[in-house]
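FW: tagging you since you asked about this chain on Friday. Here's the raw sequence from the shared folder, copied in full. Didn't touch anything.
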Amino acid sequence: MDVATVLLFNLAILGALASPGPAFIVMIRSAFAGGRRAALLTGLGLSIAAVCWSILAVLGLQVVFLAVPAAYVALKILGAGYLLWLAVSLWRHADRPVETVPPGFGRGFRLGLITNMANPKLVFFVAAIFSTVVPAGLPVTAKVQLIANHFTIELLWYGFAAFVLTTAPMRRAYIAMKTRFDKGAALVLGALALRIVT
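HL: got it, structure written out here
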């Protein structure tokens, strides 16, 4: 596998990571509300879920979704339901003060894992990358290397985001406008959930 393929693959993944979506919103919220440890755990969960979708894309799950559209629709509805639940929770608790005790391991990790697993369109995105960027007939070992590379990119991105978002100036800014930020994030998550369904 040549360097150009890896670079194109990485640029495509980074482009997706940098675009606003449910994953980045929960990452921001986790960093601001729970601190660095919570953000890192959320990033780990997001990364693992994204790579799970990559593995499923490589195994051909997008073919199953295309052959059985009802399965894809069902996953989309479940994913949208989860995002709506997150949005309602954020809105309802927007007026509460920032938690001073960081959440345990399970909570931050679970938030990231479920958020990205609730987004089945990732399998199509990764399948599109593999069909356009990655040469056809790539050996299994090269595909495994690309998936490991994908996991590394995800971890580095969310690790960087966790460190930047949990700096003292960022946290002070969040505390000052917590209610507005949380309600705004809830509206965006709600809109994304509706977009997934429609």
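FW: The chain has a mean pLDDT of 81.
HL: agreed, and Residues 3-197 form one domain.
FW: great, closing this out.
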